[in-house]
Amino acid sequence: MITLTVNGVDRQLDLPGDTPLLWVLRDALGLTGTKFACGVSVCGACTVHIDGLAARACVTPLSEVAGKTVVTIEALHEDEIGRKLQQSWLDGNVPQCGYCQPGQLMSASALLRQNPNPSDADIDKAMSGNLCRCGTYTRIRTAIKQAAKS
Ligand code: FES
Ligand code: FES
């Protein structure tokens, strides 16, 4: 049995320790906001927070998060930074197809927690691992800056 906290709720999971966190979230817990895309840690679609830091759920085994705190896109609105990002994403009409956006938002949220007033270079560096096939990068950067100022 492996115990972890997901979005503020303690969870006990009777699953193999090598089960990717992404499948734990999506299949075992029904938290389908976190997306599967590449599956090999190159696109960022599966980004969540583990103990407050952005991490790739597709390559993180369940055993590695035992006793830790995981936050997914479903809980983004539960803190002020998340709510500001949601508003700036809406104001800037950021998403196109939307598939990459949960991961983008979780990376942006982790950035603003560590750096409340990021420069363009800071944003580009922090967001460089999140790919968007629709090319929303410029709007994402603008929205992060708006959230930082609001
Ligand atoms: S699905 Fe995890 S990084 Fe692409
Ligand atoms: S909005 Fe379509 S992949 Fe990013």
List keywords for this structure.
alpha+beta, five-stranded mixed beta sheet, 5 helices, 37% helix, binds FE2/S2 (inorganic) cluster
Q: Low-confidence runs (pLDDT<50, min 5 residues)? A: none
- Mind describing the biggest β-sheet? 5 strands, mixed
**Helical percent range?**
25-40%
Number of helices: 5
Structural class: alpha+beta
Any idea what the shape is? globular
Instruction: Give me the count of strands.
Output: 5
Mean pLDDT: 97
Strand order of the main beta sheet, please? Answer: 2-1-5-3-4
What ions, cofactors and ligands are bound?
A: FE2/S2 (inorganic) cluster
From N to C, what is the helix and strand string?
EEHEEEHHHH
Radius of gyration, whole Å: 15 Å
Distance between the termini: 43 Å
Strand proportion, as a percent range, falls in 5-15%
